[in-house]
Amino acid sequence: MAPALLILLGATVTLQADLLPDKKFLLLPPVNFTIKTTDLAQVLLRWEPNPDQEERNVKLGYHVKINAPQEEDYETRNTESKRTTILHKGFSASVQTIPWNDHSLPPSSWVSAELKAPPGSPGTSAVNLTCITSTEANTYTHLRPYQVSLHCTWLVGKDAPEDTQYFLYYRYGSWTEECQEYSKDTLQRNTACWFPRTFINSKGRSLLAVYVNGSSKEAVIKPLDQLFALHAIDRVNPPVNVTAEIERTCLTIQWKKPVSPFPIHCFVYEVKIYNTRKGFSQKEKVTTDTFIAIIDDISKYSIQVRAAMSSVCRETGLWSEWSQPIYVENSNTD
User: Fold this and answer.
1) Are 312 and 266 in contact (CB under 8 A)?
2) 156, 129 in Cβ contact below 8 A?
3) Which of the residues 175, 179, 200, 251 could staple to 293 if both were Cys, CB 3.0 to 4.6 A apart?
4) pLDDT at residue 68 tops 90
């Protein structure tokens, strides 16, 4: 029995040794790492596994680190990655091979690639780019019951020559459009753009990419691109059908939700009641489409309501404009 036991013990030691991490097994960095622009404010990172990588029972993955324009890192098992990002400052990234299922192995060294910032004279790019979207009912087709417009404005770069002309494009998803309706400054330079209809989805969560380039006979105009979250630039419509009535000391105000593809529970409201006799205004926030106030003044009241998106449906953004004022009078003398 003793020799057999020794043989079994020896086999156990050998198996345990096989399970220990092999210190000589090294992960090699990826090869042929490239970064290419594929659309407005969009790049494709692509690489290949190292052909000299020793094959073992180890699943490989990759750690990607974005170095510029903003630091970001993530892990993936794919050998390509599409990123939405501004590009007017250039773009650089690094990638390394990592063990996907064996954290005892150290990662490989890094390999890096970059896109240079586009050419252009300093101070010539558009500045203070701002954009606003708004939604209207679409009477042209039942397939898209709502349409989204886009309005963007910007200022001329401080060192841009007088003959500079700017041109704006937007990209939402896979759709890209060039502006056709510009507003101009006193030197006839484009400083605002209006898209009455766009392919932007009112309820979408994709980033809106806006790109402004320019031309001049005196200088190379540096381009500008910027990303906008829709919830941050979407101007909600005011509530509609606002009504108010007074019965004795009770003021009841009602309205309907704004024109929007979002359902009724997606909105919060603010009611403004102005007492014209006292010159006193009060504001109240509500989550329903009705507000009741107790009044005791013989006076005339101005009523307005505005709306914003509730966080239950989307991140809170801009308040709507106030609804047109309506007037109601309390002439009760009882």
Assistant:
1) yes
2) no
3) 251
4) yes
